[in-house]
Design goal:
The complex is a heterodimer of chains A (about 90) and B (about 625). In chain A, about 45% of the residues lie in helices and about 0% in strands. Chain A is mostly helical and about 90 residues long. Chain A has a single domain, classed as ACP-like (Non-ribosomal Peptide Synthetase Peptidyl Carrier Protein, Chain A). In chain A, helix 1 packs across helix 4. Chain B has about 625 residues and is α/β, with parallel strands linked by helices. Chain B has 18 helices and 27 strands. The N terminus of chain B is likely disordered. The chains are: A mainly alpha (about 90), B alpha/beta (about 625). Chains A and B meet through helix 2 of A and helix 1, helix 9 and helix 16 of B.
């Protein structure tokens, strides 16, 4: 196999979780934050519909940073306002 | 983090135009002073820069900054903090003065002296320059939450109309909704070259001229601009400086949004008054990772920094011990807390959590103030821990302060600032209360503003209050309740939130807290408690939002039963009417405070759109 035929993987994306894993993580975090069972969280429903306030939304971006071990914009949840959209955006 | 705390965040986030459930509205007030003779402004002794506390009250902000720029041009006024390090850019006193002159020259070209200019810049150097430039041009600065695309422009438009704005100041990278740009000309602050400074002319400004309008939100629904004069501003920053024990070697860290009086005056202008250095951090950077605030304090070895009560709770809730390695908070000597009720429990848990990293409980600096009085009204002694007082609940309900072993803990907000006078007044009789009685806080001082912008009728009540028996006044009626014990102010609540049923006083916020804690369906939602008159009876109404995830499987009857039961157990009150509503139904101010009056009006008008209402059976 000729290694040069395949571009090397982007180092920033090595060991980065997939969109599916991120979605599961986000649902678990959101459920914990809202004190509700995970099955009540619909990935297609906007965050604000769950009563998640702006401080919690910015705070969640901080937890995401910790988990992903990379920089995340504080206002990311405003640009990608559902679990599905955010996971899709962040997924490796 | 408690509710009041979270609400305040809306203000912080609005700095980026962020609001999920933003509701408009507003109110607050201010009166005026005239205690100093207006004269000799340029004749008086020059500023004594080793002791800037003795700056003449007749100086304007322009005099002050120009002098600092001449005296210490290379001293850094502001630096920006970004994730663990100060960025390379610095704003020196010479830079600030030069850029302000250049920008002011542009405003002067447009003949904007006395005109209103909207400040829309994000927090940072440009914001400070834009603010100072307005003052350098004799224009009236109007700090605003920057509007963002796809966000309601209601508040923006209301204020722009109210002040008949002539211009907006923003930065070149800032995206503004096209509707705002179509109505007003906009100058981009960072595009003004330094060479324009040469055209600047010293404006003729009197100390009583309005420097800026601080918009506040209140319970009635209309934002009102408190008119802060140069004299108000100078008096208050001087008073804060003295209370905090500042000098021009002091250093501060500020993440507070500059659209709010606490961030603008307490965080930035007081530091400029001292010719000192402040490290600025974006409000969302703090919210995303509260540890950054403490790291900035630790790494810059700053002595002055603070925020509302919620900020301290957020640190305790979010920061993990393993993240604190190397944190050194031992130099932090003024950890101010204000702008929302100060909770003894918050101070205690913060002090306990961060004691290992050098935080000292005596650093806590509770203070009390409001935009109508520029900012600070009372503040503690910066060298000792705040005094606390536990009072008997039953006595408090009867408007009396009675120290007790068990009861409600109150934190002292310290003593009144210099040249100010504070009285506790019975809001019914308008006479001074006895020393152990709770009443409305009235204050008079050179910091009390001249009133709301173009609201002469509204100004009468809050800004021109006189004691009924002695005729003393005029006072500013703060609308807050409290008492003075040994010269120290203890704030107990808002007059408007006082619920009087069968001669006993209850605080609406206490009842709301009980309701919120009564069921998991009320987590992260809001509630409002108020009274309505039914025949000769005063009846208690509770409107409570139900969390979105609970709506589908909601069984209202047991929930309503729980609310009634808890309120009766805790407060000895019967809730006549319970209204359950969807999240976002309770009206709130732009700073996230619930508007009970407005909610009450909506309830009476039948505009609440309830999920479920439980009322007593009509009496036949």
């Amino acid at each position: 196999m000729n290694a040069s035929a395949n571009p090397p993987p982007d180092p920033a994306k090595i060991n980065q979780p997939t969109a599916v894993a991120i979605e599961a993580w986000l649902i678990a975090q959101l459920a914990a934050c809202l004190n509700t069972p995970a099955e009540d969280i619909d990935p297609e429903v906007p965050f604000d519909s769950y009563g998640l306030d702006s401080a919690e939304a910015v705070g969640l971006s901080g937890e995401l940073e910790d988990w992903l071990q990379r920089k995340v914009s504080p206002t990311l949840l405003y640009d990608y306002p559902t679990v599905a959209a955010l996971a899709e955006h962040l997924g490796a | 983090m408690d509710k009041g705390a979270k609400t305040w965040l809306h203000q912080g986030l609005s700095c980026l135009g962020i609001c999920f459930r933003n509701k408009p509205l507003a109110l607050a007030a201010a009166y005026f002073d005239a205690l100093y003779p207006i004269n000799q402004r340029y004749l008086m002794t020059p500023l004594t820069f080793d002791y800037p506390q003795v700056v003449s009250p007749d100086l304007t902000w322009v005099d002050l900054l120009s002098k600092w720029a001449a005296q210490q041009p290379d001293q850094v006024a502001f630096q920006l903090w970004n994730d663990g390090a100060a960025l390379s850019g610095r704003l020196t006193y010479a830079d600030l003065d030069g850029r302000s002159r250049a920008m002011a020259a542009q405003l002067q070209q447009r003949s904007l002296q006395g005109e209103r200019v909207l400040l829309l810049c994000p927090p940072g150097f440009d914001y400070v320059v834009a603010f100072c430039a307005c003052l350098y041009a004799g224009a009236i600065a109007v700090p605003m939450y920057p509007p963002r695309p796809n966000q309601s422009l209601e508040r923006f438009q209301r204020i722009a109309r109210d002040v008949q704005a002539a211009l907006m100041l923003a930065t070149s990278t800032q995206k503004l909704p096209p509707e705002t740009l179509s109505t007003l000309p906009c100058l981009r602050v960072d595009r003004v070259g330094a060479e324009a400074a040469i055209d600047w002319q010293v404006p003729t400004i009197a100390p009583e001229d309005i420097a800026f309008l601080q918009y506040t939100s209140g319970s009635t629904g209309t934002p009102k601009g408190v008119q802060i004069s140069h004299r108000n501003l100078m008096h208050n920053v001087a008073a804060i400086s003295r209370k905090f024990g500042l000098n021009h070697h002091s250093e501060g860290v500020c993440w507070l949004p500059p659209y709010h009086d606490m961030g603008l005056i307490g965080g930035m202008l007081t530091s400029l008054y001292q010719g000192a250095l402040t490290t600025l951090m974006s409000p969302v950077d703090f919210l995303q990772r509260p540890l950054r605030w403490l790291q900035a304090i630790s790494q810059t070895q700053t002595t002055i920094s603070g925020g509302p009560n919620f900020a301290y709770d957020l640190c305790v809730d979010k920061i993990k011990p393993e993240q604190c390695q190397g944190l050194d908070l031992s130099r932090w000597s003024v950890a101010f807390t204000g702008a929302e009720p100060i909770r003894a429990a918050t101070l205690e848990r913060f002090a306990t959590t961060f004691a290992d990293y050098g935080f000292r409980p005596e650093a806590f600096y509770p203070c009390y103030g409001m935009a109508e009085a520029t900012l600070m009204i009372t503040g503690g002694d910066h060298t000792s821990a705040p005094k606390q007082l536990t009072v008997d609940d039953a006595a408090l309900a009867a408007h009396r302060i009675q120290p007790a072993d068990q009861g409600r803990p109150l934190v002292s907000c310290g003593q009144v600032i210099e040249k100010a006078h504070l009285v506790i007044v019975d809001p019914q009789t308008l006479t001074a209360c006895q020393p152990n009685e709770v009443g409305e806080i009235w204050v008079t001082s050179p910091s009390v503003a001249g009133g709301y912008w173009q609201q002469p009728e509204l100004n009468q009540k809050p800004f021109h209050a006189y004691l009924a028996d002695t005729g003393a006044g005029p006072f500013l009626r703060t609308g807050d309740l409290g008492c003075v014990q040994d010269g120290e102010l203890f704030v107990t609540g808002r007059l408007k939130e006082l619920i009087i049923i069968r001669g006993r006083n209850h605080y609406a916020s206490d009842i709301e807290a009980t309701v919120a804690a009564s069921h998991a369906a009320f987590g992260s939602t809001w509630g409002a408690a108020f009274t309505v008159e039914q025949g000769s009876q005063t009846q208690l109404v509770v409107v409570q939002e139900v969390g979105r995830v609970w709506l589908r499987r909601l069984e209202p009857e047991p929930i309503i039963r729980t609310i009634r039961q808890r309120v009766t157990q805790v407060h000895g009150l019967r809730v006549e009417t319970v209204v359950l509503v969807k999240p976002g139904s309770i009206p709130k101010t732009s700073s996230g405070k619930i508007q009970r009056d407005r909610c009450r009006s909506q309830f009476l008008a039948g505009h609440l759109d309830p999920i479920k209402t439980a009322q007593p059976a009509p009496v036949h």
